[in-house]
Amino acid sequence: xxxxxxxxxxxxxxxxxxxxxxxxxxxxxxxxxxxxxxxxxxxxxxxxxxxxxxxxxxxxxxxxxxxxxxxxxxxxxxxxxxxxxxxxxxxxxxxxxxxxxxxxxxxxxxxxxxxxxxxxxxxxxxxxxxxxxxxxxxxxxxxxxxxxxxxxxxxxxxxxxxxxxxxxxxxxxxxxxxxxxxxxxxxxxxxxxxxxxxxxxxxxxxxxxxxxxxxxxxxxxxxxxxxxxxxxxxxxxxxxxxxxxxxxxxxxxxxxxxxxxxxxxxxxxxxxxxxxxxxxxxxxxxxxxxxxxx
Amino acid sequence: xxxxxxxxxxxxxxxxxxxxxxxxxxxxxxxxxxxxxxxxxxxxxxxxxxxxxxxxxxxxxxxxxxxxxxxxxxxxxxxxxxxxxxxxxxxxxxxxxxxxxxxxxxxxxxxxxxxxxxxxxxxxxxxxxxxxxxxxxxxxxxxxxxxxxxxxxxxxxxxxxxxxxxxxxxxxxxxxxxxxxxxxxxxxxxxxxxxxxxxxxxxxxxxxxxxxxxxxxxxxxxxxxxxxxxxxxxxxxxxxxxxxxxxxxxxxxxxxxxxxxxxxxxxxxxxxxxxxxxxxxxxxxxxxxxxxxxxxxxxxxxxxxxxxxxxxxxxxxxxxxxxxxxxxxxxxxxxxxxxxxxxxxxxxxxxx
Lengths: 294, 352
Prior knowledge:
The structure holds 2 protein chains of 2 kinds. Chain A is mostly helical. Chain A is built from 11 helices and 2 strands, in the order ααααββααααααα. Chain A has one domain: ABC transporter involved in vitamin B12 uptake, BtuC. Chain A has helices at about 1-30, 40-55, 60-85, 90-115, 140-160, 165-175, 175-180, 185-210, 215-230, 235-255, 265-280, and strands spanning about 130, 135-140. In chain A, strands 1-2 form a two-stranded antiparallel sheet. In chain A, α1 (about 1-30) packs antiparallel against α10 (about 235-255), α2 (about 40-55) runs parallel beside α4 and α2 packs across α9. Chain B has a single domain (about 45-345), classed as ABC transporter involved in vitamin B12 uptake, BtuC (Orthogonal Bundle). Chain B has 15 helices and 4 strands. Chain B has helices at about 10-15, 20-35, 45-70, 75-95, 100-120, 125-145, 150, 170-195, 195-205, 210-215, 220-245, 255-270, 275-300, 315-330, 335-345, and strands spanning about 155-160, 165, 165-170, 250. In chain B, strands 1-4 form a two-stranded antiparallel sheet. A two-stranded antiparallel sheet of chain B has the order 2-3. Chain B starts with 11 loop residues before the first helix and ends in a 5-residue tail after the last helix. At the A-B interface, α4, α9 and α11 of A face α6, α10, α12 and α14 of B.
């Protein structure tokens, strides 16, 4: 029973971080129709960058985090401006492939600057375990979930009340109409990339402060694809709900199925979920199914 | 497409022919002779480079049929190659099946795996399909690395050299002839498949699958056929990789990055052309050799101030950059430039 509670809490809290990363994906997909497959690599890069700021440069934590966020904003802007902008209105195949190329580049960049490949981030959260009922849970997970919730809240307020946020929602709805209203669509594209990078950065920091930095973070980012697929590509709500489901499935499977199957079943569950969703309900729980005309 | 002055087509068969002039036939014959003679003059170093290029061309041809002609993006090609490699290695190693049957078996199993993971393509496309092929890659590699009793898991699997009617392909030169023979057949099949009813159906599905369906092209049949053929090529290539190149199998040879590289190759070469993947593969594999065997050791020994191993990041960085630059600057790939060159050559010295 204690095990079950522990797996549940860990799963849901980790799942919230997945949701956070996945929301960055949904944001870009909705506003510009680009599928960002470099998500995992971005998570890796930002984790290493945080390591560089906090452990190597030795900045105080608050300043280091500010620099990381600034870097994420800058990188998002650069990616949109120099990689995606020239490819506007190209077929989806090119848009997917260009993010793959970017993924390749970023992973190489991480090897280039931090070739030792594995390290730990300085602890950001207190880590004394706390007891919930019979379960013993590391406090970090709860902090990670709290930060994610805070960001969800901030984002929904932004989308509801800020001018730019409303414009971004409008772009997701109908790009042509927004352009006709005189809203610069390219600025919205670049804004969505900047936000997505910040979410990837925060997600990366949360994941790596719990589990350390390694190439496994790329797979963590990839797991957010299963969140996106399960929740539906164009639904924020879907991403928020599907994240904990994936986290839960992963942790429960890791806890109870490992004995019956091969080790590492935990890592593969999200990908199996992708395939199952594809067969049963390809547009996810909350995704809008496309009706196409010739 | 420009024809040289004075060449006219009097029948449809002439119009459809790949080689239309005597010069083209002579050049084609010259190419075959060149492929047969050149290896005799080369050392083992270059032979092994030619071998990996030949093996990769087979797989890239398959991916090009699937992605370039049929428009179904697959980012799990390395996974399907691994299926072929392991199937063939296990069939020959543990069941004593002859190499040719093992290789065809590898292609068949890889093709069927491709069909299985291609089923979502009937309902979804674009990004959804890309994700499901990524999932395929991870699931396949997980099964291979965990199913240790059969595949050897992380420890790896020893593979016997290829053997046909008692002749063992152990020297680089004999391997070269085997690989190039199969490679030429694969290119021939791919080129001609693209010109048949099936190939035209693929192109119709790529350009607009709804319109294709309205015209009576069964999406179920042709999408899955494309997956089968594409992954069959991958499986054959995997079998050759196991028997003629590595002689040893390890899950690390078939990483996700390798899958991205295959997509990069056909993009650099030019999607939906037969000559494109060849250009792309030659370009990428030569660049890979150049960087990892020449540039990286040079950088490592020159710049010692940085932590060790830093230069191994140079290869992926350059490849990523090349893919991105090609997509931005020349999305139709090297094949398009080649076509432009041929056209201007035919018209020379006139401009049009």
